[in-house]
Amino acid sequence: MITVVGIRFKKTGKIYYFDPADLSIEIGDHAIVETARGIEYGVVVTGPKQITDEEVVSPLKPVIRIATEEDDQKAEANKDKEKKAFQVCLEKIAKHDLKMKLVDVEYTFDGNKILFYFTADGRVDFRELVKDLASVYKTRIELRQIGVRDETKALGGYGICGREFCCHSFQSDFVPVSIRMAKDQNLSLNPTKISGSCGRLMCCIKYEEDAYLDLSKKLPRVGDEATTEDGFHCVVDSINILKQRIRVIVDLSDDEREAREYGPGDLKFSRKKKKNNNNQEQEVSAEELKALKELEKE
Fold first, then answer.
1. Burial of 247 (0-12, 13-18, 19+ CB in 10 A)
2. Please, which residues bridge with residue 63 across strands?
3. String of b and e for 93-119 (b: at least 16 CB within 10 Å)?
4. Which site among 6, 36, 175, 224 is 20 to 30 Å from 278 CA-CA?
5. At CA 200, angle to CA 198 and CA 206, rounded to 5?
6. What share of the chain is helix, strand, coil (3-state, %, to 5)?
């Protein structure tokens, strides 16, 4: 077992482990550490804890020091520099007439490198832009093309739920979200209703998937045949997974039918409809299906 502390360099960035050495480190402290990018300033989000050797990415580097007041001031100064560099880069992009959207600028703590993050529909020849920026800042310049989900994570905003974007408020890593998950939850397959502001499937679909799968274990499928407590034949018409209620159409007589609701244990199922994975695909148009497939792409 190894003692580590978890440090994050961005608000919702990935957590990296470091050796606390002999320092008294607590959650919320700012610390100075060495990374592959150089000396960095981060915040401690996981206090000292024991983990197995397999969970550590070697070599485990030690925390250099707990951030001083001077380090804090330097970090704030870097933020001001990033705002100015953002404006300068926008001017240079316009000058070279490049088809790209600048999203964020980041200074390394030691000032040895400036990273410019952007989005674009395709490849962009930014060699002249890099030369211009290097001549202004006299330091290493790196331009990184990112995806639409990364852009949304960086910019932030509010979703249709009224809450701040998950990716911007607490989500460290993106998780794969598929159309299959939307089907499991009986969500509308209308692309405009299940996609987030980034244009990809909403992350919350993934969060709720396990709960829906667990709740669905005791439930039948639409079309399954059953017998009610009082002996009437019925067919499953719809299912409310969260409420655990089953709506059935009951055959009272040859020409009389009635809709009723039951719990999973109130019906005796005699025959189940064969599962067809393509049912819901057939309920949407070819254009909508194509749009749904696009939502799954990173």
1. middle
2. 33
3. beeeebebebbbbbbbbebeebbbbbb
4. 175
5. 115
6. 30, 30, 40
Residues 6+ apart with CB under 8 A from 231: none
Name the phi and psi angles at 296, rounded to 5: -80, -15
**Identity at 27, one-letter amino acid code:** I
> Comparing C-alpha atoms, which of 215, 257, 263 is closest to residue 235?
257
Query: How far apart are alpha carbons 246 and 241 in whole angstroms?
Result: 8
**CA dist list (Å): 102 to 94, 127, 162, 282:** 11, 15, 27, 40
**What is Dmax (Cα atoms) for the chain?**
87
What pTM did the predictor assign?
Answer: 0.74
For 178-215, the pLDDT digits (tens) are 888 988 888 888 888 888 888 889 988 988 899 999 99
Determine the length of the chain. Answer: 298
Q: What is the token pair recorded at 153?
A: 């994570």
| Encoded tokens for 73 | 């001031």
**In angstroms, what CA-CA distances link 124 with 2, 97, 100?**
44, 11, 7
Q: By the 8 A CB rule, do 234 and 250 touch? A: yes
Once rounded to an integer, what is the mean pLDDT over residues 240-262? 92
- What does residue 84 show for φ and ψ, rounded to 5 degrees? -70, -40
Task: Say if residues 244 and 219 touch (Cβ distance below 8 Å).
Answer: yes
Beta bridge partners of 114: 107, 141
CA distances from residue 219 to 46, 210, 224, 264 in whole angstroms, order as listed? 41, 15, 10, 6
What tens digit of pLDDT does each residue of 105-162 get? 999 998 889 999 999 998 999 999 999 999 999 999 999 999 988 999 988 899 888 9
Strand ranges (DSSP E) for 36-100?
A: 38-51, 63-66
